[in-house]
Structure formats: structure tokens, C-alpha cells
């Protein structure tokens, strides 16, 4: 999430009650979680395992719960509970705004766009020209949709990320990490019925131009999907994954988090993508591997009973071993 204007580290420190180590004169341009940080961003870390990774990431300012050395030009903001400090900042700059009507007065809807009955459009939503939004669609706050987009009935765009801070030393282990990111749907996209597209935790979930999605597809937080992709029914893509241009995911493909699928890759139905895949290849299986090799493996698996029977016949027909001479 970008701040409306750069915010001084001194103001942030005062707001969250932090001690500043390092660049006390800096200005933060936004707040982001570690997968998506950029120079100028404010991030947080509350586990020693990730201290070094956070301090040496692209983030310029890090909320942390322990004093440490800081690279030149960066600043640490030391507080007892970095996660709570993060929530305070998010809620200050992107507070919850309850809706009191089906279409918010702050929504901007382009010429020629048709909004069917029983559609909800939240605050600060932008929809381009010549779009068709079918009945029962819910478009949450801060979603941006381009031109010539079709959204099928019952779809939800911009729901909160499935993202939690876990601490086993408290009664409630999982505490919700408030989502302050957006969903950006580029022009010429078609989204089927009953789909769900989550907003970014603190960055953007992106659907590239010309991409087509079938019914019952789920796209997790901070996913970036390229141009002209094809996603068949019941595909699920977990958070912070990047999918290149021209990728095809056939029905019921499951894609794990924080990985990359290269341009023009094809993943056959019911496959499970557990790691990154190179582009311009076809994949199958769980975990997904090169389709030709995976198909051959299936052929041999199916032959196991036949091969086992051959082995047993050979053993039964083999002559008995002569008695051993122990003299």
C-alpha cells in the first residue's frame, strides 16, 4: 500500500511508540509485507529467523522487536510488538469504511458499463468502459477494473487475504493480518461465475489483459497473472505466486504459494504445482512434472500388476535348488 504522501520516520516512530536506529530523517512511501517490498517501503518482522532477510531486503524501514545493526540509509523502528504496530499503521491509512448503499458514491463507473441487479460495488472502486457486471457480484473497496471486462454472477473481487500472524504463546494462535492491498483487473478480462479473487495483503493482486477465467476459480492474495492466460474451472492459486503470459491451467489445478510459472506453460487437469515451472512446457501430475515423462510413469505404474504376475510365475517355474552338502 502506498501512503497518500511520504511519511517521516519520526512521525511513524511517535505514532507506534518506537525507538529509531539508523536514518532518522527518512520518509516512507508505503507499507508492504516481505514478499513484495520495494525501496521506500516500511515492513515489519517479529521472528529472529527473518531478521537478516528483512533488514537486507529492499525495504528502507523495518519495524522490529530487537535492536540490530542497520545498513546505511535504512532505519529500524524497535517496538515490543511489530505486528500490532503494523496493524495500527494499516488501520490509520486505510481504515474500514462501512457501506450504506449497493453502489458507493465514491465508485467511478465508465461509459457503456452495465451493472446488473443485486451487485455490490464498494468504496473507491474504478470500473472502465463497456464492462458487464452480472447479478450478485461483490466488488470490495479499492478494486480497479479496466475496459471491456465481463464478471460472472456471484463472483467476489477484493476479499481479504487468507493471511495470519501465528504465535503459539497466546490464546488465539492466528491473528488476522489486515489486508490493505488492491485487486487490479486489466482490460479485456473475462471472469466466470462464482470466482473469488483476494486483494493483496499490502500490495496488488493483478489479472493481466486478455486473461480468461472459468467458473469457480480462486486467486489468492498478491498473485500476479500475466496477459492472455486461460484458467479452467476449479483452479486454485495460492498467495504471492507469479504466472507468466499465455499460461494455461486446466480444471482443478492447484498451485502452491510464492512460486513462478513461466510464459506459455500448460498444466494438465488435476495437477498439483508445488514448485516453480519453466515456460513453454506442458506439465502433469502431483507434484507436476514434464507431461511426457509423467505420462510414461503412469503407463509403467499401470503395468505393475502384470509385471508382478510375471515375476511370480518365474519364481514358481524355477527348479528347486539342490540340497546343500554340509559334509
Briefly say what this structure is.
The chain has 327 residues and is an alpha/beta fold. The chain has helices at residues 9-16, 51-55, 82-93, 291-302, 304-317; strands at residues 2-8, 19-22, 27-31, 41-44, 61-64, 75-78, 108-109, 114-115, 120-121, 126-127, 132-133, 138-139, 143-145, 150-151, 156-159, 164-166, 174-176, 182-185, 190-191, 196-198, 204-207, 212-213, 218-219, 224-225, 230-231, 236-237, 242-243, 248-249, 254-255, 260-261, 266-267, 272-273, 282-284, 289-290.
Provide a descriptive summary of the structure in words:
The radius of gyration is 26 Å and the shape is flat. The protein is built from five helices and 34 strands. The protein has helices at 9-16, 51-55, 82-93, 291-302, 304-317, and strands at residues 2-8, 19-22, 27-31, 41-44, 61-64, 75-78, 108-109, 114-115, 120-121, 126-127, 132-133, 138-139, 143-145, 150-151, 156-159, 164-166, 174-176, 182-185, 190-191, 196-198, 204-207, 212-213, 218-219, 224-225, 230-231, 236-237, 242-243, 248-249, 254-255, 260-261, 266-267, 272-273, 282-284, 289-290. 16% of the residues lie in helices and 29% in strands. The strands form five sheets. Strands 8-11-14-19-22-25-28-31-33-34 form a ten-stranded mixed β-sheet, covered by helices on one side. The chain has an eight-stranded parallel β-sheet with strand order 7-10-13-18-21-24-27-30, with no helix packed on it. It has an eight-stranded parallel β-sheet with strand order 9-12-15-20-23-26-29-32, with no helix packed on it. The longest helix has 14 residues, at 304-317. The chain folds into two domains: 2-93, Udp-n-acetylmuramoylalanyl-d-glutamate--2,6- Diaminopimelate Ligase, Chain: A, domain 1; 108-291, UDP N-Acetylglucosamine Acyltransferase, domain 1. The chain has 327 residues and is an alpha/beta fold.
